[in-house]
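Handoff note, outgoing to incoming analyst
You'll be picking up this chain. Sequence as last confirmed:
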Amino acid sequence: MNNPIPTPAVLQQSTQYSFTFYQSVFTLLDMHDESFFIVDKNHRLVFLNRAAQQRNTEFHAINMATGSVIYSQLEEPVKNSMRANILRAFKGESFSFEMAIDQLEPKEPLWLLITYQPLLVHNGQTKTICLRMKDITVAKGAQILEQQQKQMEKELLQSRELFASFMQGSPALSWITDRNGTMLYMNEPMLNTFKFQKADIGKSIFELFDKQLAAVYHQNNCNVIKGQKQLVSVDQAVQPDGAICTYKTIKFPVVINGEIMAGGWAMDITDQKLLEQQLVDSEVQKKKELMRTVLETQEKERREIAYELHENVAQVLATAKQLIGLHETNANLELSRSVQKAIKEAINDLRMVSNRLNPFSYEQSTIVEALNYYLQMLPKEGCRFTVRLSGSEKGLNQRKRCVLHILQECVRNVRMHSGATEATIELHFAGTIRIRVSDNGTGFDPAAPVTGLGFKSMQHRMEHVNGSMQVASSPEGTTVSFEIPFCTQ
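Most recent structure output, in case you need it:
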């Protein structure tokens, strides 16, 4: 739309510039892509260029004409604001401000730089003002993006500083490793513990650690990255001074710039593990001491009972047998012989019980001698035992009693429960005491719960001497094997 060049009285009365001059100025403004409005003291439009008219039509759906009040068609809040700004300008004040106007399409707001400026002054009084509107949407968008970028950089810097402060103050060792094993971050405790330098950040873990340990670390990192889940483990690491420390390690996935990496925390639990082991060792030692006391007490009671049976009860029976023999007559001959036979069997049974309770003389005989003596005291009927020996038991002291009681229990189990006719006892003395007792009996189920005292007693003795016990059984027979550390003390 072509706006006619205005010729209001205010322009005709100007003594400083000609009408032709104003006409030239208006023509130039009409060619400008910015919006220009010239308003007189009655707030009526003296001039608006093409860009201004087009903007009013597009954004306000109004058609302004020269001679009309500039804000007459605007809504009340905008009208009041423009009226106040025009009054400020007519007082001789020049000012600018930015304004955002909502748009339907595109949805981003339109940004305008609005300037009010006195235009024509006559006799010290402002006769007209110029209202200028400049589209700064592109520049404002760039400014907003720049501000947002600066804010993001500020927040990132704060985040990095917070992360660094937190990590440096942590007592735990911490690091970040990529999928290739490159150490992208190590905090101060990590650097100090392993005597690393900051220049070592960026190196491969295979350059920084023992290759075998590095391979384990890298595999764990790969598992964390691939599985994208936390991994808790107890690892060992070699310090620069050669000391081996134990760490509780927590590894977890970390996403940096869209790439999944492995972060880690490690707490030194070497002292904790050492204390735990000391407690375990102490408990084991207490248990061994208690077991030793129980076994010694049992040995003492067995010896006392065996002595009483052998020296007192057996002697009484022997005396009774002799007395019956002295009073033997033809009349009571059969009864006398029957009673003497019963007493003799009782004496033999007492000796067998006595030998079971205290079968061996530890000081005067070797294990093989004591075992053979014990086997000779057994009834002839039943299972036949064969003894095989390799190595030398020379110097064996405290272990002798344990070995003999195990042999006694094995022999007793074979005779009472196996139904075997033959059994072999193999003894090997060389660094480790090895005992193997095999029979051709009917066997049993080793996995079944143990109810008898014999097996429990042997298990307790093995625990006491740090030994081991294994049982193999089938319908063709049973083999029980023992290994006991050789001790000469």
